[in-house]
Specification:
By secondary structure, the protein is mainly alpha-helical. The protein folds into two domains: about 120 residues; about 80 residues, Nonspecific Lipid-transfer Protein, Chain A (2-Layer Sandwich), CATH 3.30.1050. About 60% of the residues lie in helices and about 5% in strands. The protein contains twelve helices and three strands. It has a three-stranded mixed β-sheet with strand order 2-1-3. The longest helix is centred in the N-terminal third of the chain and has 20 residues. It is globular and about 45 Å long. It starts with a helix and ends with a helix.
Length: about 220
């Protein structure tokens, strides 16, 4: 995917999320998402936030207060953004800012792409509302997460497994095979193992289950 295609993919997922959220009641907005310690409303705020992100100085100051824990900084920013807005306002932001190409100073376009894809699933899966990832974008996301280390450490966590997508041309790792749709593999790579497992098959499933139990 070229740069424009990646931005179009992000815009499309923001709109998908807005449509998904628009019909929710208060109880659904308050449900836990797949993302640990985040409610569905917090995830929605996180996806709506990048075009409105503060400057690098503000983010670094928060990082210092959190002893360099950028995951905690992300969570704090999302929760604060969610607390200041109604559900309807968050849906409106996602739609109004869908095409914005502004991003936080501490991330990259490739990271923003997979982040948006996965967070849509963080909302959709707990609600039991299937949402298909665009295949090209999901493949790009899987490749990016496999290459990176922190915060997912996918290569280390899934050592000894060969991951193989059944719907696109993508594979990674060496060992016993685990195969499934690229969407499920991206969830696995980003630590959403319980959500991914029902869609995966192959001789590596026993080792994957052992890895999940011991981690």
């Amino acid at each position: 995917m070229d740069r424009d295609a990646k931005w179009r993919g992000i815009a499309g997922q923001r709109r998908v999320l807005a449509d998904l959220l628009a019909g929710l009641d208060d109880e659904q907005w308050a449900r836990p998402s797949l993302c640990a310690q985040w409610r569905i409303k917090d995830v929605a705020a996180h996806v709506a936030f990048p075009p409105q992100s503060p400057g690098i100085v503000h983010i670094l100051a928060k990082g210092l207060r959190r002893c360099g824990d950028l995951q905690a900084v992300n969570r704090d920013l999302a929760i604060t953004h969610a607390a200041a807005r109604s559900p309807a306002a968050l849906v409106a932001e996602l739609r109004t800012l869908a095409d914005s190409r502004r991003k936080p100073a501490i991330t990259t376009l490739d990271n923003l792409l997979f982040d948006t894809l996965v967070h849509v699933q963080d909302v959709a899966v707990p609600l039991g509302l299937p949402v298909a990832m665009p295949l090209d974008a999901a493949r790009e996301g899987a490749e990016r997460v496999w290459r990176m280390g922190w915060p997912f450490w996918a290569r280390r966590r899934l050592h000894g497994l060969h991951l193989s997508a059944t719907d696109v041309d993508w594979s990674a790792g060496e060992g016993v095979e685990v195969r499934g749709p690229i969407q499920a593999l991206l969830l696995l790579l980003t630590g959403r193992t319980a959500a991914a497992l029902p869609q995966l098959t192959g001789p590596g499933m026993t080792q994957l289950a052992d890895t999940t139990t011991s981690s």
